[in-house]
Amino acid sequence: MERPVQRFGEIPGVPVGTTWKSRKECYDAGVHRQIEAGISGTEADGAFSIVVSGQYKDDKDKGDTIIYTGSGGHKSGDRTRELDRDQEWTDFGNQALRKSSETGKPVRVIRGYELDSEFAPWEGFRYDGLYICKRAWKEKDRDGYYYICRYTMEASLPNDQALIRLTSVKRGFQINHPYAVV
């Protein structure tokens, strides 16, 4: 089945809680159309999706609120994501997510297993619903060396959002109601 390359909101046939083994499978499902980058979108339209996977140590995941670190600031191809310079608004991902903070369009959130959070899946990647980028700003990283782009992401339906805790979900587990808190 061909999936749209750029689309805001839900992907038909992909309910909240759907899991995949790899980023490539997320790409193939049309949920996050970047294999490596954590932000998928355009400067003109905004961000369609983000992956919160623990690649940046400044990310904070509180379930229905995520403080997300932007992209860039490290050597190209450096999978450790150790910063060696400031992040810039001109990075394509930062431009897209900053635009989303202005438009209020929903952004799909995918959580990865490497994220240090009770809301992360045990393994692979999981689609956790739509979030709204409420704020974009720059601040020093937690070590105080480099400026990073920061975003406050809030669940678009915070009272109904699927907040799936690490202790209760394993790959393949099906939730009877897609917005149930387990």
In brief:
The protein is mainly β and 182 residues long. The chain has helices at residues 23-29, 92-103, and strands at residues 19-20, 39-42, 46-52, 60-61, 65-69, 107-112, 125-140, 147-155. Residues 165-182 have low confidence and may be disordered.
List the helices and strands and how they pair.
Elements: E1 19-20, H1 23-29, E2 39-42, E3 46-52, E4 60-61, E5 65-69, H2 92-103, E6 107-112, E7 125-140, E8 147-155
Parallel strand pairs: 3-6
Antiparallel strand pairs: 1-7, 2-3, 4-5, 5-8, 6-7, 7-8
Characterise this structure.
By secondary structure, the chain is mainly beta. Helix content is 10%, strand content 28%. It contains 2 helices and 8 strands, in the order βαββββαβββ. Strands 1, 2, 3, 4, 5, 6, 7 and 8 form an 8-stranded mixed beta sheet that branches. Residues 165-182 have low confidence and may be disordered.
